[in-house]
Amino acid sequence: MEEIREKKQDIRNEVARKISALSADEVTQRTRAIENRLFEFANFLESRIVLLYTPAPNEVDTLEIIRRSYLYGKIIVLPAFDPNSRSMRLFKVDDLNRDLAQGTRGNLEPNPKRCKSVPIDCLDIAIIPGVAMDEKGGRVGQGNGYYDRLIPDLPITTRKVGLVYELQIVSSVPLESHDKHVDIVITEDRVIYKI
C-alpha cells in the first residue's frame, strides 16, 4: 500500500516537473486542443447536464470549457469539497463571476449560498480531472480520493471523461482497491477509449 502511494507521488512530481517546463503559450495551445476535442466529442455535445471542475495545480484548465459550455446551452455543475468528510457536493453554477468563491483546495468552488444543489443522478457526463492517467482509464489525482468516492456513485449511463495533456499519460497507473477508472481520456492529440 505504501509503495503504491510512493509511486503515485513520484508520478505527481514527474508530471509537475514536465508541466512547469512548458511555456505559457504551450500550455494554452495544448489546453485549446483538448477543449476543441471535447467539443467534437459526441457524448459531450449530446449531454445537457455536465459535471466539470475548476483546475487545481497540474490539471487541465477548464475555465474556457465552462464558458463555452454555457454558449452551447449546457447546465454546468461544479463540485464543492468538504475536507472534513472528504466528500464533495455538486452545485449548478449559472455565473462564473458571481457564483464561485475560493475553496478549501485553493481553487474556485461553487458558493453554496448562491448555487442550487444538484443530485448526482441528474448528470449526463462527468468531466474528471487528473494529474496523470493511463490508456485503461486509471488515474492519479491530487491524492485526497474525492473523485474515487464520486465515480462509483455516478449513474452507469453517465460517461466519465478524463482530461489530461499527452505528457500526463503514463504507461500504467499503480492502483489501490479504492481507485476508480474513467471511461474515456481526452488529450490534445487523441481520444482514448478504455480498453
In summary, what is this structure?
By secondary structure, this protein is of the alpha/beta class.
Structural commentary:
The protein is of the alpha/beta class and 195 residues long. The protein has one domain (2-193): 3-Layer(aba) Sandwich (Rossmann fold), CATH 3.40.50.10420. It has 6 helices and 12 strands. The strands form 3 sheets. An 8-stranded mixed beta sheet has the order 6-3-2-1-7-10-11-12. The chain has a two-stranded antiparallel ribbon with strand order 4-5. A two-stranded antiparallel ribbon has the order 8-9. The two termini are 25 Å apart. The mean pLDDT is 93.
Distance between the termini: 25 Å
CATH architecture: 3-Layer(aba) Sandwich
- Helical content stands at 25-40%
**Uncertain residue ranges:** none
- Trace the largest sheet across and list its strands: 6-3-2-1-7-10-11-12
What distinguishing features does this structure have?
Rossmann fold, 6 helices, 29% helix, alpha/beta, two-stranded antiparallel sheet
Write the layout of secondary structure elements.
Layout: H1 2-20, H2 24-38, H3 42-46, E1 49-51, H4 63-71, E2 75-82, E3 87-92, H5 96-99, E4 100-102, E5 108-110, E6 116-117, E7 125-129, E8 132-133, E9 139-140, H6 146-150, E10 159-163, E11 184-186, E12 191-193
Parallel strand pairs: 1-2, 1-7, 7-10, 10-11
Antiparallel strand pairs: 2-3, 3-6, 4-5, 8-9, 11-12
